[in-house]
Amino acid sequence: MFLAQLSDLHILEPETDEEYYLDNNARLVTAVASLNAESPRPSAVVITGDLTSWGSQIEYEQLAERLAALEILVLPVGGNHDDRDRMRAAFPTVDWVDAEHASWSVVVGGVRVIGLDSTIPGQAGGQFDDERAEWLATELTNSAEPTVLAMHHPPFNSGIDWMDDAGFEGLDLFVSVL
User: Fold this and answer.
1) Looking at the predicted structure, is the pLDDT value of residue 5 above 80?
2) CB atoms inside a 10 Å sphere around CB 122
3) pLDDT value of position 158
4) Which of 55, 58, 141 is nearest to 76 (CA)?
5) Distance from C-alpha of 129 to C-alpha of 56, rounded to nearest angstrom
6) Does pLDDT of 26 surpass 70?
């Protein structure tokens, strides 16, 4: 089984004036073409958060337009720049958990891939709470397959000050579930 990972796409509305992000939409088109040309082709592409820059409906439309050419299963994980409801709507074929968090679990090529929503709406940092702990523990317990866990926020200090300052609430609980 071969997984590809993309992260921090930060897709924007057209005609944006944010210079830092101007090429993000074009970069995704290039990444899609590159992934489609891979041999062997990945079984799935996991996108680990910040699919959009501001979580707007137009950004999700831009994202869907660019991903439409991808001939590989897309498994999106939300990041702190994403909107859970709009992300769920943009990816209606994902088997989202019936919970406040937008997580999912799927078996691809004999491997369980879990997308864990570590976001706190409106905040930069990550979170692992009791609801996610119960769900993840159940997924891990009920799975005989090897498992890959994908999430946006690193549950450790990265050495990048602004990321580490944002924090990861519930780290001890996360470690105990794993």
Assistant:
1) yes
2) 6
3) 83
4) 55
5) 26
6) yes
